[in-house]
Amino acid sequence: MLPSENRLRRRQDFATAVKRGRRAGRPLLVVHLNRDGGAVGRTDRNSDSHPHVAEGLPSARAGFVVSKAVGPAVVRNLVKRRLRHLVRERLSRLPAGSLIVVRALPAAGSASYLDLEHDLDAALRRLLRAEPADAVPTGAGR
User: Fold this and answer.
1) DSSP H helical segments within the chain, as ranges?
2) Any idea what DSSP says for residue 132?
3) Which residue did the predictor score with more confidence, 50 or 117?
4) SS3 content of the chain, % helix, strand, coil (to 5)
5) What's the confidence (pLDDT) of residue 142?
6) 3-class DSSP state for residue 40?
7) pLDDT 10s digits, 14-69
8) Spatial contact of 135 and 95, defined as CB atoms under 8 Å apart
């Protein structure tokens, strides 16, 4: 299970990750990553006391979308549990304050844990390799 500070719960956060973030599609899933965490344009009245910000450094947060197209409830819950476990192990690789939404495609219902892991890793490699448009390259290690 993901710790509370690492969960996406609000519809607005899901929408921010999907609309403003980058997307990487794979045969089993689609991953949306928003590196700035939706801080721009936030409409919270108390954005200074946001519950997911600990000592000024927000943690990466993840959410999952597994529709009925994936299969019956038992299969959907299995896919969600597998994805939660996989993402939990990879949260430390994500930039602080980023939002990630993992959407399972219908083929994920019959996929193995290793297949889900392979697709998730490939999608994250693609998303993390891409430099944000406003980032200044450091040139270190190139």
Assistant:
1) 11-20, 73-90, 113-129
2) P
3) 117
4) 45, 20, 35
5) 41
6) coil
7) 999 999 999 999 999 999 999 876 554 444 444 444 554 445 567 899 999 999 99
8) no
Cα 118 from Cα 122, distance rounded (Å): 6
Location of structure tokens 């600990």: 54
Closest residue by Cα to residue 33 from 93, 108, 118, 106: 93
- How far apart CA 99 and CA 38 sit, in angstroms, is 8
DSSP state of 34: E
Task: Tell me how far apart the alpha carbons of residues 93 and 71 are, in angstroms, rounded to a whole number.
Answer: 30
How many degrees, rounded to 5, is the angle at CA 13 between CA 11 and CA 18? 95
What is d(CA 82, CA 88) in angstroms, rounded to the nearest whole number? 10
| Residue 122 identity | A
Start-to-end C-alpha separation, the chain:
37
